[in-house]
């Protein structure tokens, strides 16, 4: 049996059939490990921050988490059908060169998420160390930043096989200690106070729903096929969707619900989470439990960041930068390190600008997701792999229907979201220009973030209607090439034109 290499050298090229040994159930491990984090409890504070009741918040949490990871599962189907990373497979919908537009959005989103998780890990470390009386101040943060970034970059550079092994171990460790944390904080829950929270409006519920969807599944959707490209060609599409959805949503549904109970019981905790999402949760624990809590929180956050760095490196390669995959992961890791140091040591507030950044990129990312999901569901055959790397192939250089759809959906979407952090991120105050008929930027619909849902649904429907014939032509042309025996894909680093 061929030994698995320590460092994965496979970049964006097609994965060889001999390496495609994964089963759909294997998808459970990376998705669960990346999301079984006490950080998920912080969302309880943010959801209740929309002014809704516990019951409303619970409904929003279950729907938002499960639906968003179900959408990830649909995109994961493409990984099995095409044996390539998400942003390469997206070329079938946007064209080999046209794909660079959503590719840039995807890369920026991944970098943002990775950096946010690393920052949260550093702040949590500083808070726990201070609570233990060990050390505090700049020194702790410097060491924490270097260690966190070092672990993330190392695992990402080693690649897929090492990450899958790491995630299968972290799943059990972080899962067990997270359960312990939940048991320990139960005495802090005041059920009477939680159930007394007043109901909010439908608009407030929609706003919270969009935040949950973008914070969970939609935050990962641009990398969903990266982890299914090693699946056997015979793997069931429905099994891939199911395991992706279960792995991603099982832990967050429980953790956010616990977070709702804690935040609803203690308004002071809700405010503290805004400054230090994970560290604030540590203040509820007895001293003896701080070390296990810190280790678990750190590993879970690092686990999520590792997935992001790995995939952002693949996205970088898909943009046409011709370097080995480990180097691409290292470059993104360096950017993460610089971003973490800058925010932790120099920025006065990071949560506000981050959430503003997330919603801004969330709109075009939702538009891209709608297009790709419709494209995947419309196709009847596997991708013509050579054409994913050749602008003269069946997918062409640019698919203007997809590009225009994404642009229009994004413009409309940005007009229906507002910058909820106007003071911290004034550079985003241009949004919300279509809210006038709905009461303006101060109206009841202003905080519903309708633009994200509009971009997702509109782009999905337009693609279903306008690109069906194009997809059938692509599949017919691919079948003709297969009959002619023209099915050998050029490598992207040695002759490929992608």
Mean pLDDT across every amino acid position:
84
CATH architecture identity of the domain at 19-350 = Orthogonal Bundle
Q: Give the topology string: H per helix, E per strand.
A: HHHHHHHHHHHHHHHHHHHH
CATH class placement of the domain at 19-350: Mainly Alpha
CA-based shape: globular
Distance between the terminal alpha carbons, to the nearest Å? 33 Å
Subunit organisation of the chains: single chain
Poorly predicted tracts of residues: 489-498
- Backbone structural class: mainly alpha
* Total helical elements: 20
Task: Report strand %.
Answer: under 5%
* CATH evolutionary superfamily of the domain at 19-350: Hydantoin permease
Helix proportion: 55-70%
Largest beta-sheet details: none
User: How big is the Rg?
Assistant: 22 Å
What name does CATH use for the topology of the domain at 19-350? Hydantoin permease
How many DSSP-defined strands?
Answer: 0
InterPro entries: Pur-cyt_permease (IPR001248), Pur-cyt_permease_Fcy2/21/22 (IPR026030)
Main location: membrane
Keywords: Membrane, Transmembrane, Transmembrane helix, Transport
Pfam family, one: Transp_cyt_pur
Describe this structure in words.
Mean pLDDT is 84; it is low at 489-498. The chain has a domain at 19-350: Orthogonal Bundle (Hydantoin permease). α8 (160-185) runs antiparallel to α15 (290-318) and α15 packs across α16. The chain is built from 20 helices and no strands. The longest helix is centred in the N-terminal third of the chain and has 33 residues, at 100-132. It has helices at residues 28-35, 39-48, 54-82, 86-89, 91-94, 100-132, 138-158, 160-185, 191-195, 202-215, 217-220, 237-265, 267-275, 279-282, 290-318, 325-345, 351-378, 400-414, 450-466, 468-483. The protein is an all-alpha fold and 498 residues long. The radius of gyration is 22 Å and the shape is globular. The relative contact order is 0.18.
């Amino acid at each position: 049996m061929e030994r698995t290499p320590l460092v994965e050298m496979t970049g964006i090229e097609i994965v060889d059939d001999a390496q495609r040994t994964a089963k759909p159930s294997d998808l459970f491990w990376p998705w669960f490990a990346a999301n079984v984090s006490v950080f998920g409890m912080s969302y309880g504070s943010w959801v209740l921050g929309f002014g809704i009741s516990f019951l409303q918040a619970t409904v929003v949490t279950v729907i938002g988490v499960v639906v968003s990871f179900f959408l990830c599962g649909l995109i994961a189907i493409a990984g099995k059908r095409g044996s390539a990373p998400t942003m390469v497979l997206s070329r079938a919908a946007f064209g080999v060169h046209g794909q660079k537009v959503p590719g840039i959005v995807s890369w920026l989103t991944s970098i943002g998420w990775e950096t946010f998780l690393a920052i949260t890990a550093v702040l949590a470390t500083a808070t726990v160390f201070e609570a233990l009386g060990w050390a505090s101040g700049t020194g702790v943060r410097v060491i924490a930043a270097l260690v966190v970034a070092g672990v993330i970059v190392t695992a990402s550079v080693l690649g897929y096989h090492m990450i899958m092994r790491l995630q299968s171990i972290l799943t059990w460790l972080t899962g067990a200690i997270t359960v312990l944390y939940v048991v320990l904080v139960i005495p802090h829950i005041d059920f009477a106070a939680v159930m007394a929270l007043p109901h909010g409006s439908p608009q407030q519920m929609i706003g919270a729903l969009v935040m949950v969807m973008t914070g969970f599944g939609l935050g990962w959707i641009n990398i969903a096929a990266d982890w299914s490209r090693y699946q056997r060609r015979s793997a069931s599409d429905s099994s891939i969707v199911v395991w992706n959805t279960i792995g991603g949503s099982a832990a967050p549904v429980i953790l956010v619900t616990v977070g709702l109970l804690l935040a609803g019981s203690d308004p002071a905790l809700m405010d503290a989470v805004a400054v230090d999402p994970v560290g604030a949760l540590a203040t509820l624990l007895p001293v003896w439990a701080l070390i296990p809590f810190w280790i678990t929180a750190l590993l879970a956050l690092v686990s999520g960041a590792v997935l992001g760095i790995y995939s952002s490196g693949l996205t970088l390669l898909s943009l046409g930068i011709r370097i080995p995959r480990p180097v691409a992961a290292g470059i993104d890791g360096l950017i993460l390190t610089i971003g973490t140091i800058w925010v932790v040591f120099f920025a006065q507030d990071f949560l506000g600008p981050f959430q503003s950044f997330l919603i801004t990129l969330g709109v075009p990312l939702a538009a891209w997701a709608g297009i790709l999901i419709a494209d995947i569901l419309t196709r009847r055959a596997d991708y013509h792999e050579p054409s994913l790397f050749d602008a003269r192939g069946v997918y062409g250089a640019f698919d203007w229907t997809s590009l225009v759809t994404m642009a229009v959906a994004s413009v409309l979407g940005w007009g229906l979201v507002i910058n909820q952090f106007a003071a911290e991120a004034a550079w985003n105050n241009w949004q919300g220009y279509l809210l006038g008929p709905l009461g303006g930027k101060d109206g009841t619909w202003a905080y519903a973030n309708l633009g994200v849902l509009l971009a997702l649904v509109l782009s999905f429907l337009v693609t279903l209607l306008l690109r069906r014939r194009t997809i059938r032509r692509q599949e017919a042309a691919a079948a003709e090439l297969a009959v002619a025996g023209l099915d050998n894909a050029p490598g992207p680093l040695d002759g490929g034109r992608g």
